[in-house]
Amino acid sequence: MMSQVRGAQLARLLGQWHALPGRRRSPDYAALAGAVRGLLADGRLPLGVRLPAERELAEALRISRTTVTAAYRELRESGHLASRRGAGSWTMLPGNHRMAGTGLWTPLDDRDMIDLGVAALAAPPELLPAARAAAEDLPCYLGGAGYHPTGIIELREAIAHAYAQRGLPTSPEQIMVTSGTQHALDLVLRLAHSPGGSVLVEAPSYPNALAALAARRARITTHGLALDEPGWDADLLLGTLRQGRPKLAYLIPDFQNPTGHLMPASLRERLVATAHAVGTDLIVDESFVDLPLDGTVVPPPTASFDRHSRVVTVGGMSKPYWGGLRIGWIRASAPQVQRLAAARVGVDMASPVLDQLVAVHLLAQAPAIVAARQAQLTAQRDALLGALAERLPDWRVTVPHGGVTLWAELDGPISSALARAAEEVGVRLAPGPRFGLDGTLERFLRLPFTLPVADLVEAVGRIAAVRYDLDRAGRPQWREPAVIA
Ligand SMILES: Cc1ncc(COP(=O)(O)O)c(C=O)c1O
Question: Does ligand 1 lie within 6 Å of residue 318's CB atom?
Fold first, then answer.
């Protein structure tokens, strides 16, 4: 989508702006501002695009720069333009509805924004060679129709092998390849959940999983995680299962998003036993399992304690490799995989063969790629922790020993107001309430360490500055950032 409009393009869109009705009664700058508002109102000029520099537009329209300056000022005052010194001006709507036309504000909409809303790394250098190698392999598949509802066999074998290496014997028939972990979760819910059914989740939890549950009209109950390790309170968690007997529980035991907690082996074992005893099926999200830091030893997979097909595991390539690959999977019993595949053909038929081949090539180099990711994440986490300790010493954080995020306890219930203020200085944040259900968690903020060190340090500096301004402004402002992943 368009992220910037050039002077000549805008001039073309504006057309006969100086001859609009009522024009004679208003000065040039007001007519120009009115014409831009008109373009925004009828959708011809999208929201969130950067307007041309004043001089460029003045040249394109053959008017004085002062007129453009005054028009931009009026647009700012009416809430149709946001400007940042040295960075430019973006279209918006009054009331801070800065959503793009799609309803989503994607990371690419604003390249100057330091995006701490998305907890995912840029692609590793191995990705491009893997894509080229995958293209070389493609001819083997071109003779067939290309629909593989459970995934191509090479990839299912590679994923099954990785589980076996983690101590969980798995056959390729137990694996279904999906278009990302989110897709995997949605498919599992289609099969395992009926509208109005009860689901236990952690609080805080992953917002898009909560969205998937809300879309299926789940009745959600929560287990509150502590800030300190281990996070889960075993007695409370198992007690909630026994009392509520939910149909499902969705949990992230391996470097939980957002807290980074790691569930101990003993609790995994008790959890699976209790779930079976009370009739709860477990959906275990292993998105971050490949990313232990500091030499942390990851306990056996939760599914390794399962003797009754109570545990369905979802995972994917997005966190250790690249989100843009859109490769995830489900590990379940072979009959469950067959049922999932039957449900899937009514959704998207199958995942792209080429992307699956790329995944095969990446998984073949897993140890080297993952080791480099771990080193990168460790350095970035430490830089983020250092910057926080220096600039925001009143915030409390537990050092995560894996995953890609830390969960900070702030010095007040200010998370949404802080996110709103940070966006004004070019930092997008995912405030605490996005990770809960009921508008609570205002004292918390998730901070990913997936960006380069310089960006993280810069972001913390800007956050610290607006934190100070919040006290002085004395009025919280609320706005939801859109895309969190
Ligand atoms: C816990 C969790 N589950 C699922 C996802 C979605 O991952 P994918 O990109 O594989 O759909 C994410 C991404 O942030 C996540 O953190």
Answer: yes
Q: How far apart are CA 281 and CA 398, in angstroms?
A: 30
Q: Could you tell me which of 188, 239, 242 has the C-alpha nearest to residue 218?
A: 188
Ligand 1 centre to CA of 107 (Å) is 16
Q: How many helices (H) and strands (E) does the chain have?
A: 16, 15
- 329 phi, psi to nearest 5 deg: -160, 165
318 CA to centre of ligand 1 in angstroms:
7
Of 181, 183, 185, best ligand 1 pocket probe by most atoms within 8 Å of the beta carbon: 181
Residues 6+ apart with CB under 8 A from 379: 453
What global pTM score does this model have? 0.78
Is-contact 206 212, C-beta < 8 A? no
Ligand 1 pocket mutation pick from 116, 225, 318, 351 by most atoms within 8 angstroms of CB: 318
Q: Indicate whether residue 119 lines ligand 1 (CB < 6 A).
A: yes
CA gap 90, 96 in Å, rounded: 12
- From first to last of its 485 residues, the chain has per-residue pLDDT tens of 457 889 998 998 888 777 655 556 678 898 899 888 877 765 567 777 889 999 999 999 999 999 999 999 999 998 889 888 888 899 887 765 443 333 344 444 566 789 999 999 999 999 999 999 999 999 999 999 999 999 999 999 999 999 999 999 999 999 999 999 999 999 999 999 888 899 999 999 999 999 999 999 999 999 999 999 999 999 999 999 999 999 999 999 999 999 999 999 999 999 999 999 999 999 999 999 999 999 999 999 999 999 999 999 999 999 999 999 999 999 999 999 999 999 999 999 999 999 999 999 999 999 999 999 999 999 999 999 999 999 999 999 999 999 999 999 999 989 999 998 998 899 999 999 999 987 778 899 999 999 999 999 999 999 999 998 887 765 444 455 566 77
Atom of ligand 1 nearest to the CA of 252: 1
